[in-house]
Write a structure and sequence with these properties.
Layout lengths: L1 H4 L2 H18 L8 H17 L14 H16 L7 H5 L6 H21 L22 H9 L4 E4 L1 H6 L11 E4 L1 H9 L6 H17 L4 H6 L1 E2 L11 E4 L17 H15 L5 E4 L3 H9 L4 E2 L17 E3 L4 H5 L4 E7 L2 E9 L11 E4 L8 E9 L2 E6 L18 H10 L6 E6 L5 H15 L5 E6 L15 H5 L4 H12 L6 H14 E3 L13 E6 L6 H8 L7 E6 L15 H9 L5 E6 L6 H9 L1
Helix pairs in contact: 2-3, 2-4, 3-4, 3-6, 15-16, 16-18, 20-21
């Protein structure tokens, strides 16, 4: 009879705390398959602790794969090394044979743990996704991945479109070498004429190459020119030019005179000459990469200009506070009121573990389900684990309307607080069609130009990229040529004019003329060299801008100017631009956390039920 009682006590002791020590000293009483059973016991011990009545932060104790590896390694070492004290072995071995009936209890551990892991994900209390690690997207060829594993440097053969897309791409390959075929230089020469962005990039690449080749002997060109010659310390590789005819056999039927095929022949020849070294073609042309892979040549896209590999990780500017926020952060809380711009604002100074995950000018909200008052605030200061949160003004109430417009949802309220804040110089608004980006921007601009006189005028600009075929040249002045592209602003102005019910027909006509006199429509083509002072600048459809173009626009800001960037990264019409490399994504990621900028991603469409349904199902 004593035998059944033996497992009860020792098993409890092992599950509570003694099992790791026992596995380290015990030379594994079971055969090899028991090495896999050891982690199960460890998992059971931790799952028992999880089901005790503890506070939510104990979610951090959820077992990860790392302890399992440690348990396996410990068991393996113990199996190989029978160095255990004679006294410890007899003490540990007797409970071992009856441990077989206890196996069903251990087997239940994963079943009990699985729903636990699904019901309480760690993300529930985690910060905004911007703080998560980027997802690793496999964009490299197998040849490139093999070179990374063995630690060898690669030789990247650049296609012309890479240089014309990013003129600084020569210096983006770190310690690896860069090879330019002669056909790439020929195509650069063919594209250097004109005033387009591609022509400007081609000329910039030519000037860069001229600076690298200057004061260089012919032998040095053959051996490679250091890419760090012009001061780019991150580029530790060398630049090679095609100095002789590369002969390689390509499949019959491929036209030898075509530029793409000649570049492919160069890659094939380099692979034959430099055996054992990774030679990779880099091209933005999808068909070029397909042809290269069909011929068995490694080819990759140029992803160095991507801000994010996964746009789901893009900063949204909003974070939801945990339900127990006040319990953990309200112990030494301070509150006070300040008058700014004619309004009284309430401030809270809180300290706690959630604060380090916040950013300056990030919006926070707490909507408890127990009937308590909701909190909508903005982080104004951060100092370690202490933050100052300002309670927002409620623009959803009609008394706080902006040019007759009120916020219809939480995100629009956040956006209006940013747009009406004179301390915020740069605002980015992201959202799908119908979320109210243009209407909120125009309403706040008119209120601050015509009512508070904070700015002199509104300047509106956008990229002239057509959705369908181009209709050709447009007659008239600059504003008349831009008017077809500004239909969205005309529609919103019509809505804003109709909101004034007190004024009659003549009053609305006079107001419309006054508004038209304060709104200037400008083309992006003539922005270089300008400086805007006390202007309210709206950049619409900013997702079609490259990072270089958006830098050109944002640096036009003079004293007292506010810049708004509006767009939807799901509607990009510019060739070679993606969601990850768009200029709008670029500025959202780079400006986050700056005390004079803010960002809001608008989630709900407020245009109509038809538009909302169409955006979901189409």
């Amino acid at each position: 009879m004593p035998l059944p009682k033996l497992p009860t006590k020792p098993a409890t002791l092992l599950l509570a705390k003694d099992y790791p020590k026992a596995s380290g000293a015990n030379p594994v009483p079971f055969p090899e398959h028991e090495a896999d059973a050891a982690p199960k016991k460890s998992t059971r011990s931790k799952s028992v602790e999880l089901f005790e009545p503890v506070s939510p932060p104990v979610m951090a104790d959820i077992p990860t794969p790392a302890p399992k590896k440690t348990a396996r390694k410990t068991a393996a070492k113990t199996a190989e090394t029978p160095a255990a004290t004679p006294a410890a072995i007899p003490a540990a071995v007797p409970p071992a044979p009856p441990a077989v009936p206890v196996a069903p209890v251990t087997a239940q551990a994963p079943a009990a743990k699985a729903p636990r892991a699904k019901v309480t994900p760690i993300k529930a209390e985690g910060p905004h996704p911007v703080h998560h690690k980027d997802k690793e997207v496999v964009i490299k060829s197998s040849t490139s991945r093999h070179a990374d594993q063995i630690g060898g440097t690669k030789l990247f053969v650049l296609d012309t479109n890479v240089l014309m897309h990013d003129p600084t791409s020569l210096f983006r390959f770190e310690e690896h070498d860069v090879y330019l075929p002669m056909m790439t230089l020929e195509e650069l020469d063919n594209h250097k004429k004109g005033m387009s962005e591609v022509a400007r990039n081609a000329r910039q690449v030519s000037r860069t190459l001229d600076g690298l080749v200057a004061n260089t002997d012919d032998d040095a060109i053959e051996q490679g020119i250091p890419l760090s010659k012009l001061g780019n310390k991150d580029a530790r590789g060398r630049l090679f030019f095609q100095t002789r005819l590369q002969i390689a056999d390509l499949p019959e039927g491929l036209p030898q005179g075509k530029a793409d095929n000649q570049i492919l022949a160069v890659v094939r020849s380099l692979e034959a000459e430099q055996e054992g070294r990774a030679v990779v073609l880099v091209s933005k042309d999808i068909n070029m990469r397909i042809k290269a892979r069909a011929l068995g040549l490694p080819a990759e896209d140029y992803f160095n200009d991507h801000v994010l590999e996964d746009t789901d990780l893009l900063y949204s500017g909003i974070v939801q506070l945990p339900d127990d926020f006040w319990n953990k952060h309200g112990k030494d809380m301070e509150s006070w009121q300040e008058n700014k711009n004619g309004y009284s604002y309430t401030y809270y100074r809180v300290t706690g573990p959630f604060v380090p995950s916040l950013l300056v000018n990030q919006f926070v909200y707490l909507e408890p389900n127990n009937g308590e008052a909701s909190l909508y605030g903005q982080v104004k200061q951060l100092n370690g684990k202490t933050a100052v949160i300002k309670v927002l003004r409620d623009y959803s109430h009609n008394k706080n309307n902006v040019w007759g417009v009120t916020a219809r949802n939480r995100e629009q309220n956040f956006a209006l607080n940013l747009l009406m804040d004179p301390e915020c110089d740069f605002v980015t608004l992201l959202g799908q069609a119908g979320t109210g980006k243009t209407l909120l921007a125009l309403a706040s601009g008119l209120a601050q130009v015509l009512e508070t006189k904070l700015y002199n005028e509104i300047i509106v600009t956008r990229v002239t990229v057509p959705v369908g075929e181009d209709i050709g040249f447009l007659p008239g002045t600059e504003e008349e040529k831009m008017s077809p592209w500004m239909g969205a602003f005309d529609d919103n102005l019509e809505v804003l004019n109709k909101s004034d019910n007190d004024a009659g027909e003549w009053g609305r006509a006079a107001t419309q003329d006054l508004i038209r006199s304060r709104i200037k429509i400008k083309s992006l083509n003539f922005m270089r060299g300008r400086t805007f002072v006390n202007k309210f600048l709206i950049i619409d459809e900013a997702q079609n801008l490259t990072p270089k173009q958006i830098k050109t626009l944002v640096t036009r800001a003079g004293p007292g100017t506010k810049i708004l960037c509006l767009g939807n990264i799901a509607q990009i019409d510019t060739p070679y631009l993606t969601e990850g490399s768009s200029g709008l994504t670029y500025v959202v990621d780079r400006f986050k956390g700056w005390q004079h900028s803010g960002h809001v991603t608008l989630a709900r469409g407020e245009r109509s039920r038809l538009a909302d349904h169409a955006s979901d199902v189409l």
